[in-house]
Amino acid sequence: MAKQSISLTKSNDQWLKEQVEKAEYSSKSELVNDLIRQARKQQVHIDWISAKLEAAENSGFTEETKEEIISRSKSMSNG
After folding, report:
1. Per-residue pLDDT tens for 58-79?
2. CA distance 13 to 9
3. For the chain, which residues make up each domain, given as ranges?
């Protein structure tokens, strides 16, 4: 695993310490890695929505119903 050195604001460092103290995570590194994983997963979802919006704008219409789009969006965000 690659080692990195990062600088944190005092409030962000305190928040990380609190999460470790609550035993939510075993270390600040584990928590930072989990936050990055969550952000990457969220970015996939954002990219999917952006692509759908771009396609809809280019075509003028979508054949999917609002419910179908919402359902697929929710299923993507749930894993």
Report:
1. 887 778 898 998 898 888 877 5
2. 6
3. 11-77
